[in-house]
Amino acid sequence: MRTIILYVKSLDHLIEYRPLFLRSVVYAILISHGVREYCRMVSFIAEKKSSIVVLGSRVKRVYPDEQSLQGIFNKIVKHLRITPPKGRKVHPGIFIRKGDFKTLLKECKSSVNTYIEEGGMSTIPKLGRSFTAVIPFIYSFTSSEKNMLRRYGYKPLKINLNRFYPDQIVVILNFIGDITW
Q1: Which SS3 state, helix, strand or coil, does residue 80 take?
Q2: CATH number of the domain that 117 lies in?
Q3: Could you give the number of structural domains in the chain?
Q4: What residues have CB less than 8 Å from 175, skipping those under 6 apart?
Q5: Pairing mode, if any, of strands 34-35 and 30-31?
């Protein structure tokens, strides 16, 4: 299964950059003629120790525009503001899960595990259909976050984070995965 993990520091950060988040969801699970059933997108909210899980194989009534996701986003935010957030189904194929980042990294491992790091890509990596990629949401990973990712077997993939937003990185990863499949 292809897994895209967005690492978001706080709920306020997610709300502030809502359009980027909504486009990331669309680009991760939708393709021009339908849904990528072999994909899932997980957005880990560090402040809440919760994840928003979007399963391509189960999602219903999601269209390639941000407006169709706006109501779902409002439900997600409402459930994440509950203290403590509870694991629950928000929409068909979209769930909120409790759990720490280490557990998420272990559960989402696949044949190729990578995280996005600042730098220039020299060669196009071979990702294939089944990979897991961790993307920082609007910032670079700290050295302690990088060390944790390496400890769990994730290798750096250098992409210039100053030039690309998270939704664009999702498109690049899906493109690389599709052409090296």
Answers
A1: helix
A2: 3.40.1280.10
A3: 1
A4: none
A5: antiparallel
Before 84, cis peptide (omega within 30)? yes
pLDDT in tens, 134-160: 999 988 888 999 999 999 999 998 887
Q: What are phi and psi of 153, to 5 degrees?
A: 90, 15
Q: Which candidate, 57, 41, 46, places its Cα nearest to that of 132?
A: 41
> What was the pLDDT predicted at 180?
72
Strand order in 94-98's β-sheet?
Answer: 88-91, 94-98, 50-55, 39-45, 2-8, 131-136, 112-117, 155-158
Residue 155 three-state SS: strand
Q: Identify the CA nearest to 181 among candidates 107, 113, 118, 131.
A: 131
| Residues 64-73: tens digit of each pLDDT | 777 778 888 9
CA atoms within 13 A on the CB side of 40: 22
- For residue 178, the tally of other CB atoms under 10 A from its CB is 14
Residue indicated by tokens 């950060």: 13
Q: What pLDDT, on the 0 to 100 scale, is given for residue 84? A: 65
Q: Among residues 70, 63, 78, 102, which one has the least CA distance to residue 11?
A: 78
Q: Which domain holds residue 141?
A: 2-179
Find how far residue 135's CA is from the centre of its chain: 7
Over 90: is that where the pLDDT of 26 sits?
no
Six-digit token string for 90? 């928000």
Q: Which residue has the tokens 């979209």?
A: 94
